[in-house]
């Protein structure tokens, strides 16, 4: 089984298949190392704390996609990152 090195909550980690776990880890780590590849070149610079959330969400969605469990509805969450 893939290591939960990025500390996904255990309940969710166990729900994902091993391929989904691998996709989460690789996507999250790639996005954290390469934010410039994920945002428009003319976009404002994203603060590191906000980028961490964006990278996490991308990786989570990718892992869900592997197991074909992307929700039909996304709930908007208010945050301090702008």
Blueprint (SSEs and pairs):
Elements: H1 10-15, H2 18-33, H3 48-66
Helix pairs in contact: 2-3
Strand content: under 5%
**In terms of structural class, how would the helical and strand content be classed?**
mainly alpha
Largest sheet: none
Q: What best-fitting shape do the alpha-carbon axes yield?
A: globular
The end-to-end span amounts to 36 Å
Can you tell me the residue ranges where pLDDT is under 50 for at least 5 consecutive residues? none
Name the average pLDDT.
Answer: 89
Helicity range: 40-55%
Number of helices: 3
Number of strands: 0
Radius of gyration from the alpha-carbon trace, in angstroms: 13 Å
H and E order = HHH
Keywords:
82 residues; mainly alpha; 3 helices; 0% strand; globular
Write structural notes for this entry.
- By secondary structure, the protein is an all-alpha fold.
- It has a domain at 19-66.
- The protein is built from 3 helices and no strands.
- It has helices spanning 10-15, 18-33, 48-66.
Quick recap of the structure?
The chain has helices at residues 10-15, 18-33, 48-66. It is an all-alpha fold and 82 residues long.
């Amino acid at each position: 089984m893939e290591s939960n090195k990025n500390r996904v909550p255990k309940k969710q980690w166990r729900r994902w298949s091993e391929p989904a776990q691998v996709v989460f880890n690789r996507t999250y780590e790639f996005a954290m190392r390469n934010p410039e590849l994920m945002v428009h070149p003319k976009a404002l610079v994203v603060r590191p704390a906000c980028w961490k959330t964006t990278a996490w969400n991308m990786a989570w969605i990718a892992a869900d996609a592997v197991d074909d469990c992307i929700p039909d509805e996304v709930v908007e969450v208010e945050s301090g990152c702008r």
